[in-house]
Amino acid sequence: MQQAEQGDADTAPGSCLRMMLEALPSPVLLIDRADRIVEVNQAFCALAGKDRAYWLSTPITAYLAPGQAARFAAEHAQVFATGEDLETEEVIDGHDGAIRHVVTRRRRVVFDGAPLVLTILTDITPLRAAEAHIRHLAYHDTLTDLPNRAALNERLAAALVDCPQAPPALLLIDLYQFKDINDAFGDCVGDALLRAFAYRLASAARGPDRVARTGGDSFAVLVDDCSDAAGAEAACRRMLALADTPFAGPAGAVALGVSIGCAWAEPGLCADELHRRAEFALYEAKRQPANAFCLYDAALAAEVQARRTLTAELRTALAAGDQFDVHYQPVIDAGGHRVVGVEALVRWHHPQHGMVPPARFIPIAEASGLIVPLGDWVLDRAVAMMVRFPAIALAVNLSPIQLRSPGIDARILAILARHGMDPRQLQLEVTESTMLAMDAGVEAALARLREAGVQLVLDDFGTGYSSLSHLHKLAVDRVKIDQSFVHDLGRSQDARAIIQAVLGIGQALGIGVTAEGVEDETQQLFLRSFGCHEYQGYLFSRPLPAIEAVAFLETHMERAAA
Ligand code: C2E
Ligand code: MG
Ligand code: MG
Predict the structure, then answer these.
(1) Which atom from ligand 1 is nearest to the alpha carbon of 326?
(2) pLDDT range class, residue 208, cuts 50, 70, 90
(3) Alpha carbon of 345 to ligand 1 centroid (Å)
C-alpha cells in the first residue's frame, strides 16, 4: 500500500515535472504571475547557491537589486502579456560572490492549468571571459601587458576628439641598439629589461593606458598639457631620465639608451598625422647617438621624407645595378710625376637627379645598411680594374658599418683572391671615429686583413676626435691629412702647424702621409717644404671614370719609363 502510494506520488504531475527539470543541465525556474518561484532545479541551486526550499514560493524580485528587480518584473509581465518568448542577457551574483553572465530565455507555459513562465538560464561566464581575454590580447602586448599599437591609436583618436582644446603630445620611444643587448645577454634578459622599462614608463605616465608598446623595442606615450615645443622638450627630458638609471641585469647593472621622437597636436590634426609627425621626429633622433630626442618640425619632415625617398631609390638602384660607377683619383708622389696610387670613389647617376654626390648618399646607404652590398660592389669593381696595374696602390673607402658587417675580412680577401690581386696592393681607408670606436670583432677583422698584407689608411685625419698623440696607438700604415687643412694652408697658422705636426709624427713612427685636396701649386710647394711626399687633388687630376683613369695611368707609366 505504502509502495502504491509512493508510486502514485512519483507519477503525480509535480513529481514528473521535477524529474524532468532535474534531468536538464541548465538552471531552470518556473515562475508564476506574481513573480513567485514555483519550481527550481538543482542546476539553478548550484549556480545561485542555497537549496530549493530557500527559493520556493518567494517572489524572485526579492532576491534581486532594486533596478534589476524592476526590469525582471517588467520582462516577466511582458512574456505573460504577449505570450512571446523573450531572451535577455544579464549579470548576476553567483553563489560564491563571483559575477556570472547568464542568458535568460523565457517562455509562457501552462502547467496543471496554471500559467507560468519557464525561465531557463545559460551560464555564459566562460564565453564572456574568453571574449574579454581575446579583447585584451587584441589590445595588449603579451610581454609587458601594456596596451599595443591598436589600443594607442584608438586612445589617441579619442583624445583628439574628446579634448580638442588640450590635445596630447605623442612621444615615440625606441630603445637604442637593443639588438646588441639581446645578442649580448640573451632573449630572456632582453625580455626582462623590456618589462622593467615598460613598468617605469607606465609608472611615469598617468596610468598604463597612456603608454603602449608598439613594437619589439618601441614604445609610445601620450602626454597631456603639452601643446608647444617647450612642453614637448620637457616631456622628452622626463622620458630620457627614465632610461638614465641602469637596470638590474644578471651580471650587474645594464644601461639602456633611448631615441625619442615627439610631435604635439594642433587644432584639427588627426591621429594618423600626429603619428606620422612623431615618426619623422623619431627617425631623425635615431640617426643620432643614444639618448637623443627630436621634436617635429616641417623642415625636418621634408628632409626625412627626401632621405626616405632616396633610400628607396638607392635600394632600387642597387638591385638594378646599372646606376653606379666607380671613379678613380690618382695619388701622385713628391716630384709630382709618378702615380703611386688611386682612390676608388663611388658615383651614383640618378635617372632623374643626375649625379648624386657621395656626401649625400653614403650616409643614407650607411643608415639603411645598403652600404654593405654597395661597398662590396665598389671593391669588386675597383679590384677588377686595378689588378692590371700591380705597382699602383688601390685605396678603397670602408665605412664603419661595412667594417662591422660579419665576415668583412673574409669577403675582402675573397674578392682579392677572385681577381688575383696581391693584398699588399690594397689600401683600406677608414676614419678616425671608426678607429676609435672599434670593438673586439672589428679589431680582429682588421688585424687579419693587415696580416694578409692589406694596408690600413686613416682618412680625413684631423676632422675626427683623436688628438695627434693618439696616432702612435692606432695600427695604421698611412695617414691622409684632411683637405680642409690643405685648403687653409696659406691662411691659417693652425692648419700649417697641424700639417707639420702630422708629418713629424708620421716620420717618427714610419707612417706614410698623404695630403688630400691639393688644388694649387702654392699648396703643393708648402707641403713639399714640410716634407710631404704624396698628394691627391684637383691640381693633378679629378676623380676619373675607369676608361679615362686607365689612359691617365698608362700615359704616366709610359712617361715614368721614358
Ligand atoms: P674621401 O674618402 O675623403 O674622398 C676624397 C674626396 O675629396 C672625394 O670626394 C674627392 O672627389 C674629393 N677631392 C679630391 N681632390 C679634391 C680637391 O682637390 N678639392 C676638393 N674640393 N675635393 C677633392 P667625393 O668623391 O665626393 O667623396 C666624398 C666622400 O664620400 C669620400 O671622402 C668618402 O668618405 C666617401 N666615399 C666616396 N666613395 C666611397 C665608397 O665607395 N665607399 C665609402 N664607404 N665611402 C665613399
Ligand atoms: Mg677616402
Ligand atoms: Mg678623405
Answers:
(1) 41
(2) low
(3) 6
pLDDT digits (tens, 9 = 90+) for 439-492: 888 999 999 999 999 999 999 887 765 566 667 777 899 999 999 999 998 888
In angstroms, what is the span from residue 344 Cα to ligand 1's centroid? 9
Q: CATH topology of 2-123 equal to that of 321-561? A: no
The band of 4, judged by pLDDT with boundaries at 50, 70 and 90, is: very low
Please state, in angstroms and rounded to a whole number, the distance separating the CA atoms of residues 208 and 237: 19
**Interval between CA 397 and ligand 3 midpoint (Å):** 9
Question: Region 125-134: what's the mean pLDDT?
Answer: 93
Q: For domain 2-123, which architecture applies?
A: 2-Layer Sandwich (3.30)
Domain ranges of the chain: 2-123, 145-296, 321-561
User: What is the per-residue pLDDT across 35-84, written as a single tens digit (0 to 9) for each?
Assistant: 999 999 999 998 888 899 999 988 888 888 888 889 989 999 999 999 99
Contact 184, 439 (CB under 8 A): no
- 336 CA → ligand 3 middle, Å: 19
Strand 218-223, strand 247-249: pairing: unpaired
> β-pairing, 426-431 with 393-397?
parallel
Domain covering 145-296 assigned CATH 3.40.50.1370 in the classification: no
Residues with CB under 5 A from ligand 3 (ion): 459-460, 516
For residue 431, give the ligand 1 atom closest to its CA: 34
Residue with cell 713628391: 334
Which of 186, 306, 168, 334 is closest to 254 using CA atoms? Answer: 186
Amino acid sitting at position 429: E
Q: What is the mean pLDDT of the chain?
A: 89
Mutate to test the pocket of ligand 1, among 361, 362, 370 (most ligand atoms within 8 A of CB): 362
Rounded to an integer, the average pLDDT of 125-131 is: 93
- CATH number, domain 321-561: 3.20.20.450
Pocket of ligand 1 (CB under 6 A): 329, 345-346, 357-359, 362, 375, 378, 397-399, 429, 459-460, 483, 516-519, 536-538, 543
> What whole-number distance in Å separates Cα of residue 64 and Cα of residue 68?
6
